[in-house]
Specification:
Largest sheet: 5 strands, antiparallel
Low-confidence stretches: 137-143, 396-413
Strand content: 15-25%
Helix content: 40-55%
Shape: globular
Mean pLDDT: 82
């Protein structure tokens, strides 16, 4: 009875999984074939179950089946891109991991887990084509990107970042830029490029978190026809950016295995297309960005140390908006000017209460959030010409998290103890206020999430969530 219940539980688990599951036994017959796989291949699962897999293959144009290959050599194949036609003639793209199931040295069968990447593959092809077109426009002087004149700020912290950035534009050294989301990392990157000797050449940006490793590798380094099923000869972004600059956004999200291949390109100045054997020379300046503190991603193993030091020749840290004082109002006025034209408004200035409202907010989304706030607020205004605090569409998190005054006897404790007490108390109050949401609490305290987690560990602050 229990075995029947367990069998039903396992079957429900398999059917609840979003990826396709296909298991053939050692005789090549399909034993497990879930609904996700049936939907992916447009097959009736009962036409596949308990049938020899070689018979099923006749209805689909699958060359070099990974299931049969692993069944033969008993070696796993991981993250393999496969293109084939389903029984209706529709081309589908999957990323498969295929492993032999061996128990007590006996091969029981082969399990394949497939993820449908058809839409993402189409998107990646479109990305490459669009960037090829963009490159042609850049080379033909039809596009001008951001430059340093577009960056507004009077605070010492942003001036320091700009000073380093302008020096960086005079060399070809790799650059690592750290800044929270929305601080303007790509704006700085473009400014460096368009102020450099490479300004007439392509500037290409790629978010490393946007695509899975298998597709990202092909996008960056290109593909060779026959390199894998369905592959075509196509240059990658490094080739397209030759003589120019490539921005690798969110480098901390790039898979470790792919980081090793990127390191080789940086060291040797050559790329090798996926499935190819030819080394292709490229002259590309690399700018990488991270939205996490570099020390944290190093300690957590999110980036290889050798790659980190290769990228971090020039280091630029962009300050969060909450640390930029009067820059908040300078930027807000700039955005008002921009959206006055776009929305056909006539906002003349921000009221004193509006200024206070903007300055008291912590801007977790930084400059991007500020711009969206101004845009949203102005969109809801009628004929008013003054932006007041009542009109500003902003969330409720303010700086004044603690209303009670902290009183201490100066003779009782040394200063560092007092500071630690206050810091621990403020952290707990911020966590209480946000129902233990670490991200929101970090925003209230003016910290990045990683720094708050470090301090919570330091003070042994344990919460329920």
């Amino acid at each position: 009875m229990k075995e029947k219940i367990y069998s039903e539980v396992i079957e429900k688990i398999i059917e609840s999984i979003g990826e396709g599951i296909h298991f053939i036994n050692k005789d090549g017959e399909t034993i497990i074939y879930n609904n996700a796989m049936a939907k992916l291949e447009q097959m009736d699962k009962y036409d596949v179950l308990n049938k020899p897999f070689v018979d099923v293959l006749e209805s689909m144009e699958i060359k070099n089946s990974t299931l049969l290959k692993v069944l033969k050599n008993k070696k796993p194949i991981k993250d393999n891109i496969q293109k084939y036609l389903n029984k209706d003639g529709k081309e589908i793209t999957t990323i498969n991991t295929t492993v032999p199931i061996i128990v007590k040295d006996e091969l029981l069968g082969v399990l394949e887990i497939s993820k449908d990447m058809t839409q993402i593959q189409m998107l990646s092809e479109q990305i490459l084509k669009m960037k090829e077109v963009k490159n042609n426009k850049i080379i033909n002087h039809e596009k001008v990107g951001y430059n340093f004149d577009d960056i507004i700020g009077e605070s010492d912290t942003i001036k320091k970042a700009l000073s380093i950035s302008k020096k960086a534009s005079k060399s070809d050294a790799t650059v690592l830029i750290y800044g929270e989301t929305g601080t303007g990392k790509e704006l700085i990157s473009q400014s460096i490029h368009y102020d450099s000797k490479r300004k007439q050449q392509p500037f290409i940006a790629q978010n490393c978190a946007a695509l899975p490793e298998s597709l990202l590798e092909g996008i960056l380094f290109g593909t060779v026809k026959g390199g894998f099923t369905g592959a075509v000869d196509r240059p990658g972004l490094f080739e397209q950016a030759n003589k120019g600059t490539i921005l690798l956004d969110e480098i901390n999200s790039m898979p470790i295995q792919l980081q090793a291949k990127l390191l080789r390109v940086l060291q040797e100045g050559y790329v090798r297309r996926v499935g190819g054997t030819k080394d292709i020379p490229v002259d590309v300046r690399v700018i990488a960005t991270t939205n996490e503190n570099p020390r944290d991603i190093l300690n957590e193993g999110k980036i290889r140390k050798d790659l980190y030091y290769r990228l971090n020749v020039i280091y630029i840290e962009i300050p969060p908006l909450r640390e930029r004082g009067n820059d908040i109002i300078l930027l807000a006025n700039k955005f008002i000017e921009k959206y006055n034209k776009k929305l056909d408004k006539n906002i003349k200035y921000i009221s004193d209460t509006g200024i206070k409202e903007l300055r008291n907010h912590y801007w977790q989304g930084n400059v991007r959030e500020l711009e969206n706030t101004i845009y949203s607020s102005m969109s809801m205004m009628d004929d008013e010409d003054i932006l007041t605090n009542e009109m500003i569409n902003i969330n409720e998190y303010k700086t004044n998290i603690a209303e009670n005054v902290y009183v201490v006897d100066v003779d009782a404790k040394p200063l560092d103890w007092v500071v630690a007490d206050i810091e621990e108390r403020y952290i707990n109050e911020a966590l209480d206020k946000t129902n233990d949401n670490v991200t929101k609490a970090a925003a209230i305290l003016g910290l990045c999430r990683q720094n708050l987690q470090y301090k919570m560990k330091k003070y042994n602050i344990k919460r329920n969530k």
